[in-house]
Amino acid sequence: MSVAPDAVAATLATAFAIGCAFGWLLERAGLGSARVLVGQFYFANLTVFKVLFSALVTAMLGAFWLDRAGALDLGAVYVPDTFAVPQAIGGLLFGGGLLLAGLCPGTSCVAAATGRGDGLAVMAGLVAGVLAFNVAFDRLDQLYASTPLGTFTLPDLLHLPTGLVVALVAGMAVAMFVAAEHLMRSRQS
Amino acid sequence: MTRHADPYLAGVGIGGVLLAAYALAGQGLGASGAFSTVAAALTAAVVSPAKAAALPALAPYLPDGLASPLRDWLVWELLGVAAGAFASAWSAGRLAWTAERGPRLTPGPRLATAFAGGVVMGIGAKFARGCTSGQALSGGALLSVGSWIFIVTAFAAAYACAPLARRLWL
C-alpha cells in the first residue's frame, strides 16, 4: 500500500500532537515521578489508580455514546486481540518489572524528558528486554501464540449487552474511587 | 514548584485524548510498541537489516522494510509525550537532573534496578502485546478481555512484589 507523503506527514503530525497532550497530562498528574507511581503499591498514593481508571471510564463512556450518536465508528477502531495465557504471563512479568522500575514505558519517557535519569535507565532496559525477547523468540513463539481468542470483549465473555457492561465497569470504578478516597482519609487521620 | 493536578481531572483529560486517538487514528494510545520499533531499527543498523527482518517478532516493526523508525505512528506519539511532559514540567518548575528513588538507595543501585525493571517489563509487554497505555488503557476502554487480564495480573503481581521491594522505595 503506498500512501502519499503528505498524508503520512499529516498522520505523524497528528501522532505527535496527541502524544504532546498525553505527556502534558501525565506530567501534570505527577506520573513522571517513580515515587508517586510506586506509592500505589504501598497504599501511600493512589494516583496511578485514579488517573488510569478515570481515563479508562471516560474513554469507554465516550466511545460508547459517540458510537451510538453516529459521531464515531467503533467498528473502525482497532480492538487488541486476546491471547489469554501469554497476556496473563505478560501482565505478571510487567507488574513485577514495574515495581523494580517504578515507571511504565509511557511514564519512563515522561520521567526522562523532565531530567530523571531513572526514566532513561528504564527506557534503555525496555529496549534491551524487547531485544532479549526477540533473540529468544524461537523458544517462546509457541507460548506467545497460544490461546488465541481473536477480538474478544467482556460483553462476549459475559453474554451481556455492551451497554450493561459499560455501566457495570463505570459503577465499579466509581465505587473504587469512593473506597480510595475513604482509605486515604483514614490514613491521614 | 506547582502542585500536581487533580488525578481525576488529569484522567478525564487523558480519556479525552484517547477518544481523539480512536477518532483520528483508528487506534488508541501506546508506548511499548515504539520500543519494539526502536529495537528493530537498532538491530537493522547494528547487526544487519536481513537479520532484523528474519526475527519474526521484530520484522513487523521495520516500517516499509526500511531501517527507519521515523515513519512509525507510535514513535512520533512517544516523541510528543516527551515534548508535552517537558513543557508541563518546565512551566511547573519541576525539571530536575535527578534519579527518583527511595530514601535508602543511592543513584547507582537505583539506575541498576530501573534498568532491570525495564528489561522485565519489556519482556512482559511483548507477551502481553502492549503495556499500560496500549493494553490496559486503550484496550481496557474497548472492553477487550485480554486487556482486562493484563490489568488484573499486572496489579496483582505489583502488589505481591511490593513487600519484597520495600528496601527500594520506603
Sequence-ordered SSE layout with sheet pairings:
The complex is a heterodimer of chains A (189) and B (170).
Chain A: H1 5-28, H2 34-39, H3 47-68, E1 82-83, H4 84-101, H5 105-113, H6 117-135, H7 137-144, E2 148-150, H8 154-158, H9 162-188
Helix pairs in contact in A: 3-9, 5-6
Chain B: H1 7-25, H2 32-46, H3 49-54, H4 73-92, H5 107-128, H6 132-141, H7 145-161, H8 166-169
Helix pairs in contact in B: 2-4, 6-7
Task: Provide a brief overview of the structure.
Chain A has one domain.
Please state the average pLDDT score of chain B: 92
CA radius of gyration of chain A is 19 Å
Q: Which sequence of SSEs, written as H and E, runs from N to C of chain A?
A: HHHEHHHHEHH
State the end-to-end distance of chain A: 62 Å
Report the C-alpha radius of gyration of chain B, rounded.
18 Å
Features:
heterodimer, A: 189 residues, mainly alpha, two-stranded antiparallel ribbon, 9 helices, 73% helix, globular, B: 170 residues
Could you characterize what this model shows?
- The complex is a heterodimer of chains A (189) and B (170).
- Chain A contains 9 helices and 2 strands; from the N terminus they run αααβααααβαα.
- Chain A has 189 residues and is mainly α.
- Chain A has a two-stranded antiparallel sheet.
- The N and C termini of chain A lie far apart (62 Å).
- Chain B is mainly α.
- Chain B is built from 8 helices and no strands.
- In chain B, α2 packs across α4.
- The longest helix of chain B has 22 residues.
- The interface between A and B is large, with 124 and 123 residues.
